[in-house]
Design goal:
The protein is of the alpha/beta class and 213 residues long. The chain has 5 helices and 13 strands.
Length: 213
């Protein structure tokens, strides 16, 4: 399984644009390409996808973590270019998606082979649990429900060994001590502290970065 960061506050590849927001593409042999979140700007999202050689038409599933603009800004642009992708939205999502019938996620469920949603936690946000040979890898948007609560929710699918995405104001660093791959992105307030505490397992994040699971 492979994760490509498309949208982030930082850019790690020449030609890509950095902006406040998050989006990544998840690919695997047994799953349709899955787009998790869409950043804040459709034009920046599509620019970065083009630079990375990612066509909107290949996306089979779109998952939105929560309704904040920095994660939904490019959604309509993608939907206009891709009429067939399945759409998974948290139950509290208040925006309309004309012409589409999204799956409104409240409880934990399976999206496709080896990909699960934690369900909407604390009435605001869902995260993904990816089942890999090493265990469960967690993909988060902004972690508004708390990184600890998300890890606990993901544990029902197996033992978590890694996490990527925005950690918001999370500072209970001990909760990360059992992980072997930590990739703080986007809105992580204490990114530098996490890097210093876990230098051997902490990975840089930014648009253009590719993570092989």
């Amino acid at each position: 399984m492979k994760i490509t960061i498309i949208y982030d506050n930082e850019a790690k590849k020449q030609g890509l644009k950095a902006d406040w927001g998050f989006s990544c593409l998840i690919e695997g042999q047994s799953i349709p390409p899955l787009l998790f979140d869409t950043g804040a700007s459709g034009s920046i999202l599509l620019h970065n996808m083009k630079e990375l050689g990612i066509s909107p038409s290949i996306i089979g599933t779109i998952v939105i973590s929560h309704a904040h603009r920095d994660h939904t800004g490019g959604l309509q642009d993608i939907l206009e270019l891709n009429k067939d992708a399945e759409l998974y939205l948290p139950a509290s999502f208040g925006h309309t998606t004309p012409g589409r019938k999204p799956v409104m996620v409240k409880d934990a469920c399976q999206i496709c082979e080896n990909v699960f949603t934690t369900g909407e936690l604390k009435g605001i946000e869902q995260s993904l649990a990816l089942k890999t040979d090493r265990g469960i890898f967690v993909v988060v948007g902004c972690s508004h429900p708390g990184v600890g609560n998300i890890l606990d929710a993901a544990d029902k699918f197996g033992t978590a060994y890694g996490i990527i995405g925005g950690f918001h104001g999370f500072d209970d660093f001990e909760r990360l001590s059992d992980l072997s791959l930590i990739c703080p992105c986007h809105c992580t307030q204490f990114k530098e502290e996490i890097k210093q505490i876990f230098p051997e397992v902490c990975s840089e994040c930014g648009a253009g970065m590719v993570l092989e699971l």
